[in-house]
Amino acid sequence: MDRFQEENRIIDHPLDSDILCGKNKACLDHPGSVEFRSIIEQNAQRYREADSKFMKMEITKQLYNQIRRQSVRFLKFNHSKKNGWQELTSSQVRDKIGHALRFVNRRKRRKNRATKKISEAAKVPTHRRRMSYDSSTTQSTSSESMVSSDDADETMDSNQVTPARKAHGLLTTNSRNDQFVPVTKMLRGLSKSLLSKIPQTISFNEGWQSQTNIQNCLEMGEFSERDVLSMMRQPVMDFEPQSVKPVWL
Length: 249
Description:
InterPro entries: DUF6824
Shape: globular
Number of strands: 4
Strand order of the largest sheet: 1-4-3-2
Order of helices and strands: EEHHHEEHHHHHHH
Domain DUF6824: 18-102
Mean pLDDT: 66
Number of domains: 2
Distance between the termini: 70 Å
Number of helices: 10
Organism: Seminavis robusta
Pfam family, one: DUF6824
Structural class: mainly alpha
Strand content: under 5%
Protein name: DUF6824 domain-containing protein
């Protein structure tokens, strides 16, 4: 008679070799349960690579016979009567083995997908790439319409915060610490329509960051040549980058 068929058999004290079914810590940490998980881990890949359902069933059967030869029992607590542990039938044991193999493979697939996502995210640049300049008349006209004239810049209220001054303040805020404000912070609050072709060489006033850093930043930025010229005429402002709310929020 198949010892796993003894459905009504009640065990008072499980052996160390027994496999306890349950999600609580006592069941998971039981020596037999730990050994069972190790066996499943060792055979999970073989089960995953099986070409057919029949081959998967054969692997499950092999593991079942291995457990049976070692006189290992699958036990579950009798919650209804609360009078001890009850041994699973052979059919229930096979189901448990198959479920454990599928669970391990499903967990590995999820882990691999998560690792792949992290790897792909690491390849994405942390700053916004410079938008390619379109020389078409429509975009050029739209861009120029958003730029203030030189005369308007000269008579502008000194307390008015413009996109140009925002950029100027962001570029100069951390100069005393010899730190360059990240491009993402510099772009916050600037209109996306202020894109214009940036000249290759620009001279900057004393007290600014190095010309190389600022030029690199401008090449990836979203403000026009006139905004740059306006910034060169404006005094350094006490401007905190944190106070600029991103336009995309």
